[in-house]
Amino acid sequence: MRGVGFSAALICSGGCPERYPLDEIVYRCRACGGLLHVEHALPALAAVSAAEWRARFEARWRSPRWPEGSGVWGKREWVLPEVAPENIVSFGEGGSPLQPADRYAMSLGLRSVWLKQCGASHTGSFKDLGMTVLVSQVRQAIANGRPIRAVACASTGDTSAALAAYAAAAGIPALVLLPKDKVSLAQLLQPLAHGATVLSLDTDFDGCMGLVEALTARGGIYLANSMNSLRVEGQKTVALEIVQQLEWSVPDWILIPGGNLGNVFALGQGLSMMRSLGLIDRLPRICVAQAARANPLYRAFVNGWDAYAPVRAEPTAASAIQIGNPVSVHRAIGVLKATGGVVEQASEDELADAVARADRSGLYACPHTGVALAALEKLARRGEIDPAHRVVVVSTAHGLKFSEFKRAYHEAKLPGATSRAANLPIELPAELGAVLAAVDRATGSAS
After folding, report:
1. pLDDT tens sequence across 114-140
2. What whole-number distance in Å separates Cα of residue 431 and Cα of residue 447?
3. The model's pTM
4. In angstroms, rounded to a whole number, what is the distance separating the alpha carbons of residues 431 and 405?
């Protein structure tokens, strides 16, 4: 199962010569304090031809053999080549549908729009892709004698759900720091159900992040947030899957919601690795979509990247990206520069409206995906996205995790939104005549 002959290490993203083994408990460069990233031994990977890599990945796609059926572990040599099979913790994550959204695309005057449905995963979000890697490596580190007694994260909901599930499967205690009353009920219930210790704190995500960093700096508790580069290794497989599902061709655009921005860096890492190893010959343009109430990256983009500053994030229906001081901001900016990318924002009204339009075509989008859909609509209206372009929107979580958002929209109670496509049950007496009349009104036909 191990990727024989393949290896990887943690290196400084800022260019320092620091280098650490993957099982070392380190999250920032000890020389400069910069974030780390995983560097693979590319010469060994390049010794295998691009055609052979494609063939291997195709042969493993949704395989019944554990854990190769996982979209992450089916690409293990590119992700975590040195972990022992007995330490892998997997729920068959990845391999999520690339869903054509033809009816929605037509409403925008576009020909080709797909949604990468990352919410079709064990805990209902793309965070599973990174957490399978992180928890597996923690298990490996414990087996190697590293002193880890628990894993911890700050979260706006989805990270905590994924961490709690994978840690429970691994038999490792999980600690979750959540901003009080700022996550959906479903997101709160998930870590509770999996037995995690959940701390509901009277602060926002940025406050929780500061506390978990201080907590994990004391030793013995392992940090599971996206500043930990192991998460990125799993999440980068989204890029590999998109290209594979498009028969190894590159879309013109990929749009992705951005909060802490680790997912943006991960997307860039996957694309860059494919190009370096010859599986693709160009990069798509990337659009990062932010909620207007939590938009530090957007503000930096419109000012030419010269004036980045954190903001105080305001309440938004897109609660998982309600982050004013994203940890991976500079890494995300690097990805955007490399891909000729852009940043767009969406108001509460715009994101809710985009979700409603997508839902009417059968998609059932979460509010964070709604931010990306609203950005798509803006770029299409301005002509930046051409009707002939092939577009992929990364849907980060399942809409069922946000039932309160859906209900508030259809009851016209969602703050900041006009419920233009509200749809409520029609209450009627249990009489055939009343039912037939309602059916006629709905279908435009006469009985």
Report:
1. 999 999 999 999 999 999 999 999 999
2. 15
3. 0.94
4. 33
CB count in 10 Å sphere of residue 104: 24
pLDDT score for 3: 53
Location of structure tokens 């940025």: 206
Residue 27, SS3 per DSSP:
coil
Q: Which residue has the tokens 């000012």?
A: 303
Is the Cβ–Cβ distance between 327 and 277 less than 8 Å? no
Q: What is the DSSP string of 340-381?
A: T-EEEEE-HHHHHHHHHHHHHTT----HHHHHHHHHHHHHHH
253-257/390-395 β-pairing: parallel
Q: What would the pLDDT profile of 10-41 be if each residue is shown by its tens digit?
A: 999 888 999 999 999 999 999 999 989 999 99
Q: Supply φ then ψ for residue 11, to 5 degrees.
A: -130, 165
**Nearby residues of 199 by Cβ (< 8 Å), 6 or more positions away:** 175, 176, 177, 178
Quote the tokens at residue 320.
């998982």
pLDDT digits (tens, 9 = 90+) for 200-228: 999 988 899 999 999 999 999 999 987 89
β-pairing, 112-117 vs 390-395, is parallel
End-to-end, the C-alpha distance of the chain in Å comes to: 64
